[in-house]
User: What shape does this take?
Amino acid sequence: MTALTPALDISNATLELGDGDSRVLALNSVSLQVMPGEFVAIVGPSGSGKSSLLAVAGALSKPDSGTVRVHDTDLTRLSKGAAAKFRLENIGFVFQSGNLLPSLTAADQLKLVARLAHKPKVDVDALLSSVGMSHRAKHRPGTLSGGERQRVGIARALVNAPSLLLVDEPTAALDRRRSREVVELLAEQARTANVAVVMVTHDHDTLSYCDRVLDMTDGQLTPSTEATAA
Ligand SMILES: Nc1ncnc2c1ncn2[C@@H]1O[C@H](COP(=O)(O)OP(=O)(O)OP(=O)(O)O)[C@@H](O)[C@H]1O
Assistant: This one.
């Protein structure tokens, strides 16, 4: 593996969903390469295939054709069990509103993933500190703001030191200022942890933090004309 190897390399992925007359081409020969440390945003109308792209990139769905590589592993060749193990060890997921477990403190959310991913040496305090949340380590999600929950969700997604971070609408529940803070944090983590980040978003206000923006329309990806950080 060299510095020039993409962290994510999707080549001609096609995915059909539904059955009978209601079959939909969710991904229509999609290709996407994301380098380590690169922050890519995907925008596009509802139903255009954005979630399908994240599912395929995260080994949650297998495309009908094409390949999906995360570094040197072709995810399309993994069994269900092997895909689950690969996800746990190599991919981080961040969801709309943090998706935290209500009964666990911020620190325990991270410790649980560390245990599941067999990473007992993870420095939970350092990770919480890197997202500005050390002072809330002992708080449960119910006593955190939306932005704080999202920060904990980002720290939790980084526990397994992923090479790929897949982020679905991270600012959907946040106001403008918090949205910008969260996306700025993702950009910073991409750079400092050298992790490839793919973020699906409707929030055009935060695209200036991304290195590249792509439009998804009817299952196809094209470069966007949105202004970026690059
Ligand atoms: N399980 C499914 N069975 C049948 N069709 C599906 C299924 N899941 C998604 N689809 C269809 O596949 C297409 C792509 O859906 P997808 O969820 O990837 O879009 P999206 O861009 O993420 O939409 P949104 O922004 O609303 O979340 C849509 O036409 C959707 O209706």
The first helix runs from residue 50 to 57.
